[in-house]
Amino acid sequence: MHIPDGFIPLWQCAIYYVILIIALYFASKWARQNLDEKRIPLLAVLAAGIFAIMSMNMPIPFGTSGHMVGGALVAIIFCAPEAAVLVFTVVLIIQALVFGDGGITALGANVLNMAIIGGYTGLYTFKALKGTLGIYGAAGVGAWLATVLAALACAIEMAIAGTFPANVGIPSMVLYHVFIGIIEAVLTVIVIMALDKFRPDLLVWNKNKISEGGQ
């Protein structure tokens, strides 16, 4: 799903960079207000995990690459897409500069797809469904949908840029990520189940439950 340099014209990259700058402004405000010594290590661990899962990718014909993302996971755990913006900006810069995965000119587009679209989709799907599907079911659906929509956005951006025609690029990117999203959903549920069992204090939606239990 990483868009490399040269796949999108610079004038379009500039638009995505404006979106990135605005998103980073709000993300930095969120971080100052919400990150403390207990949650900073969790954010760092998630960033390392996301770096690892995004490194396992496969080339996609008429697309870029297929891989798990993790934007929904970060947004759901912190109950904030802003957390995903911070994580993915750092991870994508390192991947682009050190490993040549993705591009610096396309950084804004990549953060838009994986962190902003992925994060907001995952979190608000989770919020909408947790009353009916429960925490784990809602997290799984949110992670799957976030992966698919991020891939769809990537394909649309490349179609607008003229890199791949929409009638082949969109089906190619989406089809691969429909199946990749299933793996991502399972991984997301496993991580949230582990946190819910061993460190429920790190999950925002558990705060009221913990305080009521006197912990």
From TrEMBL:
Q: Which UniProt keywords apply?
A: Cell membrane, Membrane, Transmembrane, Transmembrane helix, Transport
Where is this chain's protein located in or outside the cell? Cell membrane
| The keyword Transmembrane helix appears for this protein | yes
Which residue ranges does UniProt annotate as crossing the membrane?
Answer: 6-28, 40-60, 72-99, 111-129, 135-161, 173-195
Mode of membrane association: Multi-pass membrane protein
Q: Which GO terms describe its cellular component?
A: plasma membrane
Q: Which InterPro entries match?
A: CbiM/NikMN (IPR002751)
Pfam families, per database record? CbiM
One GO term (biological process) = transition metal ion transport
> Which PANTHER family does the UniProt record give?
METAL TRANSPORT PROTEIN HI_1621-RELATED (PTHR34229)
- Matching NCBIfam families: PRK06265.1-1
Q: What is this protein called?
A: Cobalt/nickel transport system permease protein
